[in-house]
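Illustration 12: Nucleotidyltransferase family protein.
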Amino acid sequence: MVVNGRLNTTNVPRELRLILELLKCENSHQVTAINPDLFKDIDWELFIKQTKHHRIYPFLYSKIKGTDENMIPPNVIKDVSYEYKRNTFQMLHLSGQMEQLNQKFSEHQIKLLFLKGPVLAHDLYGDLSLRTSSDLDVLIPMDDLARTEQLLVSLGYKKDDYIQGVLSDWKWRHHHVTYFHPEQGVKVEVHWRLNPGPAKEPSFHELWERKRNITFTNQPVYLLSKEDLFLFLASHGARHGWSRLRWLVDIQQLMRQKVKWEDVSRLIKKYHYRHVGVQATILATQLLNTPLIKEIETTSKGEKLAQEAVFYLESMINLHNEPLSEEVASYHKRHLFSLMSIQQKLFFILSFLYPYPEDVATLPLPEKLHLLYFPLRPFLWGWRKTRKQVYPGRV
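Figure caption equivalent — predicted structure in token form:
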């Protein structure tokens, strides 16, 4: 629990606590000021694993290069340096693909906002080599999904058809679809929402009206306003339990920039992310010594959520590595629910009344009769329960 306004990090591994101290440093000279005791009894192999798991090795390298070998073994710095260089080539490659996509979407008059990837590294860190990215995340108007698919397929991308739906529930239950280019080795996540529903969020038109552009390529590349970016990064990191420090370092970098924090406060309240915003700022302030944002007032629920997120730092939890252990899956399910506002919880509970693809699998009906799944849903759910055919995490 939070004691006297401080997070309890007792069970966070020594290796990760050292990484957090290193991330607070502006450069390698400040590393010498860190308490020497923090470098004692470090499992350096685990230290390297933590940097890779949390995807912060390029940013960390900028802090530790040139560090005295009595503090950090040379082989550790060498390994982190290797990952830094490999990531630089990866980001340059992604930048090229991003520029191509930006040009093609412009030619086809499809509005496009880049959410993450090289554009975020450039915007938050001022250097695309300091942040990792494994794919390109873009946001488009939902009405342009069909045209976007045609365009990506024409460029050699293949769609990952993992989304199943009934009565168009995918439009609000999901928020993106994935495409992969086998030759280029590039993955693109096409978003039509910032977050999965049911949840209230700004429309694409609103986000587009507030957009910014950067010109580190031949054409302007559009991205979210700094205020909308905070809403997106805070909600995204919270949804993933802040299980990777990279997302928290993004918040740290954004909090150090010139942002209209009054507008941020208004946005997180309007879209019911106030406590999530508080959670993000508490974590960044206490774990990374980020300057406090006075416009985002602390709440007791936000403090509680911040402490709950420490659970994900105590072990190298990878939420994408399924199946999760029963303990982690149960904890994450409860945490996701606790993140919701009262209104979001109400919508979430009501969404269980809407048919699921599992209902179609249990009792296939012609598409013109799919409305019958509304009255049939309780019976189909009960049938699956009795037959023990419930999908993990679904009802």
